[in-house]
């Protein structure tokens, strides 16, 4: 224990003896650690915010009346043929068959909330203007538990649909394109040519053009009348208590019901893969920054090794082993790395805090203010410090290995 303490004392004396070079090396490590922490916080914050928006703005599991593979046609059962061409499958517009049973089964075991809807493709017309839109039939109470736009209403709400009469809520961008306002009556025309008038009782703004310009919400029964599909639904939107459980829930639903059930991870698979690649790039950059800082440590430890050659020879002649010599200079490198890391924590926190205070306007609205998404995590500090200490250890070990091999007799005689 006393020998190890002596090695520590010698290492600190060596490092302190070259104050200016040591300070430059420490600052180099601190800058690397600080900027690595800030970069990780910013990139992780951006990723978390993006994923959170994905999770919040779409169903965790989306069940539709589609199937992953085409239905087997009766002709394929009747005729033994290599291939059948010219088939004209019957147009089936029933949506999800036996929707009441399907919804009841889901509510029995599914850990979350759900809403059954009917999507009707069509056109919305007002004052000679038309926009293509999806008219979505909903049950207001259930939709409010799963919809991402509940908090985005500028006026009115989903509950206003049930106030009586034929009512609709639309996006503010659609209203602007039509020249319509709250209280006006618009006409919805389905793809089958059926038309129905609806009074605007709510306007929402989500910031997503596809929604604000192309969606209108009506009562489910009104959508069924508009599309001439009584008692039909063609989508079940599910919000889970644990979004990460979506793949397993979707698989079970698809197996039991036979309809396509898509988890949010599957719907955004390519985006999530891109985020993984981005993380690899980020930590590669962090490693490169720490490698550059390691050169500064290598330089000062190498200089100390060269200048203290006679001290090394004397220490070895007094009984210090090659292992002790390697340990001595690795400790010197780590001491610089630790000092730089501690200073880097302060710098990283300061930069991250400064970034979190940045405010800017969203160009799309010209009014809404937002901040940079920042992720505060101890893990970022640990990773940056780990890279710093690893580079410091390597930078200290290379000169240490050379010093450990020195023959003390040659140095003392002046042969080297």
UniProtKB/TrEMBL annotation:
Key words of the record: Cell membrane, Membrane, Plasmid, Transmembrane, Transmembrane helix
InterPro entries for the chain: ABC3_permease_C (IPR003838), Lipoprotein-release_system (IPR051447), MacB_PCD (IPR025857)
Its membrane topology: Multi-pass membrane protein
Domain ABC3 transporter permease C-terminal: residue ranges: 284-408
Location(s) in or outside the cell: Cell membrane
Transmembrane annotation, as ranges: 21-43, 280-301, 328-354, 374-398
Chief place of localization: membrane
GO CC annotation terms, alphabetical: plasma membrane protein complex
Membership in a protein family: Belongs to the ABC-4 integral membrane protein family. LolC/E subfamily.
Protein's recorded name: ABC transporter permease
Species whose genome carries this gene: Sinorhizobium medicae (strain WSM419)
């Amino acid at each position: 224990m006393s020998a190890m303490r002596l090695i520590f004392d010698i290492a600190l004396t060596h490092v302190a003896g070259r104050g200016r070079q040591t300070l430059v090396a420490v600052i180099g490590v601190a800058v690397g650690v600080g900027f690595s922490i800030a970069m990780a916080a910013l990139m992780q914050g951006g990723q978390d915010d993006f994923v959170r928006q994905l999770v919040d703005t779409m169903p965790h599991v989306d069940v539709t009346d589609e199937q992953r593979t085409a239905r087997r046609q009766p002709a394929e059962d009747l005729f033994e043929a290599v291939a059948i061409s010219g088939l004209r499958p019957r147009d089936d517009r029933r949506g999800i068959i036996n929707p009441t049973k399907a919804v009841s089964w889901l509510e029995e075991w599914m850990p979350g909330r759900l809403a059954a809807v009917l999507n009707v493709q069509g056109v919305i017309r007002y004052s000679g203007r038309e926009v293509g839109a999806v008219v979505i039939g909903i049950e207001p109470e259930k939709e409010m538990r799963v919809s991402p736009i509940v908090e985005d209403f500028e006026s009115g709400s989903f509950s206003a649909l049930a106030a009586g009469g034929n009512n609709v809520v639309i996006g503010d961008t659609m209203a602007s394109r039509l020249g319509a306002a709250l209280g006006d009556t618009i006409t919805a025309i389905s793809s089958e040519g059926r038309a129905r008038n609806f009074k605007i009782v709510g306007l929402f703004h989500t910031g997503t053009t596809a929604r604000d310009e192309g969606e209108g919400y009506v009562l489910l029964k009104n959508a069924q009348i508009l599309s001439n599909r009584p008692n039909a639904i063609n989508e079940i939107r599910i919000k889970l208590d644990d979004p990460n459980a979506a793949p397993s829930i979707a698989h079970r639903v698809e197996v039991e019901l036979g309809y396509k059930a898509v988890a949010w991870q599957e719907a955004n698979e390519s985006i999530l893969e891109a985020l993984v690649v981005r993380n690899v790039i980020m930590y590669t950059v962090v490693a490169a920054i720490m490698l550059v800082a390691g050169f500064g440590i290598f330089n000062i430890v190498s200089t100390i090794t060269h200048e203290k050659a006679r001290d090394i020879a004397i220490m070895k002649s007094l009984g210090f082993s090659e292992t002790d010599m390697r340990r001595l200079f690795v400790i010197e490198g780590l001491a610089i790395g630790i000092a730089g890391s501690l200073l880097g924590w302060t710098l990283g926190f300061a930069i991250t805090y400064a970034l979190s205070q940045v405010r800017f306007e969203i160009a799309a609205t010209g009014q809404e203010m937002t901040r940079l998404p920042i992720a505060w995590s101890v893990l970022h500090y640990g990773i940056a410090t780990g890279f710093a200490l690893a580079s410091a250890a390597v930078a200290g070990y290379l000169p240490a290995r050379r010093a450990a091999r020195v023959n003390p007799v040659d140095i003392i005689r002046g042969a080297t």
